[in-house]
Write the structure tokens for this entry.
Amino acid sequence: MPFGYASPEQIMRDKADYARKGIARGRSVVVLQYVDGILFVAPNPSRALHKISEIYDRIGFAAVGRYNEFEELRLGGIRYADINGYTYDRSDVTGRGLANLYASNLGRIFTESIKSLEVEVVVAEVGETKDGDAIYRLTFDGSVFDEHGFAAMGGQAEAVAGRLKERYRESMSLADALEVALTALTEPGGERPPVAQLEVAVLDRNREHRKFLRLTGARLERLLGQTTQPPASPPPSAESSSEPPSTGSAGSSGSSGDTPPPTGPEGPVDDGSSPL
């Protein structure tokens, strides 16, 4: 057997492990449906590098991992949408078509390149009604998952998805959906990221023409104060129920469960080489 030989199965496993580790170093992104469309929420300390973007009239894009890598995917999707919308009709540009394009590119790179892309992507499309909404999650190897209601990726994605599943309900208001998303992104007992470090956007089916809208500043703060979601149940107290209530209780604000360790970079760098 030649020196240095590795089976194809081992090579694929190594590339998959490498990609998963890179994606897990980023901060999680949550995408979920609400009564009027689709909401995107991500902790992001950078104001220049976006994890959430518009692709076309009613199609949004969210990603985690290496910024320079998923930015190339985003730009490729925009070119695909513009060419097809101009050549045929704007209604011919669909989230499913973009998801298929990304799946093909990611699968080819994963199979043929020495290094796989360290990215995970969501393509979301808002329909005329809730039944027409679509959320597609794509992994580094080109696998496509048709998500229903919500999706979580990056960082501690499994834990975030578990908290989403506990609190998500259909036909939530935008304020309630935002509260559910922030609760899911928040590790129990920690602190939530400040408003200035949140990237929030929606695909609002009630908007004319372009459905994508970023939520920032005072508008985002007002939404955070409008929730009607019931608060999370407090942990069981060791004190007897007959004891008088405490004059002050610590609320569970929460912190991002996928925040990188203190020794790592706290935010993306301009060259896009760090997980975002």
In short: The first helix runs from residue 8 to 24.
